[in-house]
Amino acid sequence: xxxxxxxxxxxxxxxxxxxxxxxxxxxxxxxxxxxxxxxxxxxxxxxxxxxxxxxxxxxxxxxxxxxxxxxxxxxxxxxxxxxxxxxxxxxxxxxxxxxxxxxxxxxxxxxxxxxxxxxxxxxxxxxxxxxxxxxxxxxxxxxxxxxxxxxxxxxxxxxxxxxxxxxxxxxxxxxxxxxxxxxxxxxxxxxxxxxxxxxxxxxxxxxxxxxxxxxxxxxxxxxxxxxxxxxxxxxxxxxxxxxxxxxxxxxxxxxxxxxxxxxxxxxxxxxxxxxxxxxxxxxxxxxxxxxxxxxxxxxxxxxxxxxxxxxxxxxxxxxxxxxxxxxxxxxxxxxxx
Amino acid sequence: xxxxxxxxxxxxxxxxxxxxxxxxxxxxxxxxxxxxxxxxxxxxxxxxxxxxxxxxxxxxxxxxxxxxxxxxxxxxxxxxxxxxxxxxxxxxxxxxxxxxxxxxxxxxxxxxxxxxxxxxxxxxxxxxxxxxxxxxxxxxxxxxxxxxxxxxxxxxxxxxxxxxxxxxxxxxxxxxxxxxxxxxxxxxxxxxxxxxxxxxxxxxxxxxxxxxxxxxxxxxxxxxxxxxxxxxxxxxxxxxxxxxxxxxxxxxxxxxxxxxxxxxxxxxxxxxxxxxxxxxxxxxxxxxxxxxxxxxxxxxxxxxxxxxxxxxxxxxxxxxxxxxxxxxxxxxxxxxx
Lengths: 337, 337
Hints:
The structure is a homodimer.
Chain A: H1 2-15, E1 23-25, E2 30-32, H2 41-47, H3 54-64, E3 70-73, H4 81-89, E4 93-96, H5 106-119, E5 123-124, H6 136-144, E6 149-155, H7 158-165, H8 173-182, H9 191-194, H10 197-209, E7 220-221, H11 235-241, H12 246-258, E8 261-270, E9 273-282, E10 294-301, E11 309-314, H13 318-332
Helix pairs in contact in A: 4-5
């Protein structure tokens, strides 16, 4: 909302685009505006007496029959997803940072595309994978223009990228995880990162964007740490238990280094076969030189055959994710009419 | 046209997009169709008795008042550029692989944007830089959402990338150029690649997309070989004279290698200051590991500050360029209405 506010005037003057915030809802309250929400929307929302209710919110938007309506879902829950189909079918576009809809069943995925086509609306979700990096849009374009995606390979989690990029001589895996958790780089429970499910969901979304029809269960997921460690009763216990893995990881790292390789948590889609696991990669692999929490995706297609199309950079963060959502909002206006 | 033809049915069925080719013009003839050009457009065009005339062609398109008209310019000449303004102002979108318009004066650049806004049309040119790689669109989105591009750095020419990536111990610069020229990797006259002007034009287009106002002459261009070599009277003489540079290049390469660096032909935009030259880059630089004729662009912005957004891959080739043009055509329909 801050980014939109700062750009409103420039968009109006230089691009003739008039972006207005007509309603907002958080988990507690909601707020509508007849023209545009004022800069003090935050205090107004807090002071609002309308209790948050998604059904009422969606109903209110539909009833207003505003041209170029876009509903933006920045939650990470299933609740708003239930409204997508109706909104799309009634001509209201959806921009989702929330990846729940696209990582759900193929059946829901198909239904949403059908509703979108019926309603002449847009469903955009660039930030589902790699935050603001232009991944979904690129795969979408390749697919729309008749290129065939043969292979996608990459690191799709900034957190896991950070953990494995930090694994060097003299480091201990348990300390890296503990430190990252303390600094807020991981989920409060780091197992939610290490189990690989979030990466699998992102790979599922990319695979479907390529035109493959599959379910989350079709992806072979090997967690970043042996699954017996996942069963610890608390985060504290889990973090403590990781020290048992230090020697194991050090041996894996050393063995790889002897072969000129490094360990990376790699998501891979190869002619429709999808898996997620720790892999050794050599110096010719694009993920070899990754540093920090950068993510990377290498796309090999019919046209990009000899050398892949590679996109790399920060794949998480509030600023870049917000900018990705904002770009989708600008893209959503009126395209399919 | 082949790519469009192969995708027409799929686009109609799965995306409700009906792409029709209503007219086509090459340097000799032109051809119109009332509905859609038949698959045998090539022979029909060759048999056409209408002599190619850009004014008549543009006039014919305007008079038909077709919704969502897009004119696609796949030439590399100035002739069609003169028609852009009138077409854009009359609501007809333009997709250009041709980079002449955007690399011309800032005045023309501004006039085209004004015409586009007046006409509610689109002007798209993703393939102006890096063929099908999502470069222009990414910079456009960063700019539209209020991010500020601080720095762009990269190799913008597949040809020059190839020449410098091939420079290794035991190679000779003159042989690399001669070989590349013979295999058609360079322009017929390799000086057109080596003078750096094509790279400067691409950098100019990227810089303007970031919002910087500048002319080609504001870019400091250092050719890839000393400029006195450019004055040879023929291609043959030029290629022969290059052998005088072999020792010089070998020394440069060795000096760089001693410092752990490699030579790359780098285009750089730094807070509005643009230059193009041979640079030494170290192993932490994204262009260090480039191979083959891949190009690469690293974008550092207010949001992508700690680590740049990097896009890399084949930046030339008929298939990927055509796909980039095709994607622009799909994007052009009706967005600003």
